[in-house]
Prior knowledge:
mainly alpha; 373 residues; three-stranded antiparallel β-sheet; single chain; elongated; 11 helices
Amino acid sequence: MRQQVFQAPQATDGACLIDLLDLEDVKRAAEGSLHPQNISAAVEKAYYPGCERGMLHVNFLLFVIFLSKAIASLLPVKVPPAISSNAYSIRSGSYSNTVVNPSIDGASIDSQRATGTLGRNLQSPTPTPMSPFIGHMLRPQATDGQVSNSAIAVTMNSNDDGIHLDHYNQYMGDGSIAAGWPAKESWISFPDMFNNSKYFFERSCMLYNQEPNSEEETTAVYNAIQSVAEKTMVDHRYILAIIMQESGGCVRAPTSNFGVPNSGIMQDHNGTATCNNADAGGPQNPCPAEIIEQMVQDGTGGTDWGDGLAQCINIAGTDDVSAFYRAARIYNSGSIDVSGNLEAGIATHCYASDVANRLTGWVTSEDVCALDG
Length: 373
């Protein structure tokens, strides 16, 4: 502890000087921002006139304190702003978790906690809508709030609200957006489409009384689609949609023949790759990955006997999303009706509509297409 009697240093020229403290020191002492020990240190700088080395009595310290208070009485009085009983004004150094039950721009403590803003230092120079900053007002959170704008208030919530990805819409016309067909931006992602389609991969072989795909065979289908899509520059989602339309993804789909042999997972035009050819010994289990890839290659890149998806897209004659829907009709029947409508003429009339729905998420929802009677 510093003693209340201080030794006065001796001036080097034999005379003592008096420094009644720097005015700023006095002001700070009066305002309470100068610690008493700092006042004491300042007092030690003082000299009595004509003194020799001696002792500075505590009375001088009392004189300084008295002088400080006198000056303080002359300074303007700082009156803190009034704070209402239902609001808290954030000040520098405040933290949001020091305020009980506030609402920050509509964000409750729970939402602050969920977004990581609870307890964030409010001195941050870059506040966000969820991060209050100096000057914001925190008000008590209402416990019975309700949306008052009737235009956006929801009086009855339904589980049927929103977009249904697994839903069937019947499309008709020439395949254009103007005719109501889906834009490519509404197609779902390939991973989502593939994972959703696994339901059929596991069951589609039952339609042919065949063993279901193994996990390794389904993985081989995935890899084949990705590989062939890169080589042929056909959208991998479109390849998968045709696979689902033609065979449901069953690698042991039998070769059909309605005048022309259609083989493999894509029922391509007289292709050589298949894991179920009655003339070659019947179903093959497991189906080798190289045969699965060749099935996808034949259906997408074409065979010596007929066009694949790549050629059908080129023949479609348009450079927008309608090319895919028109190509689906061509892949199914070989041509498009002279009317330009994809459901008209000799074909599976729902085929193009089915493909469009698969691209937008249809899997198990009821097929409501009535175009084939």
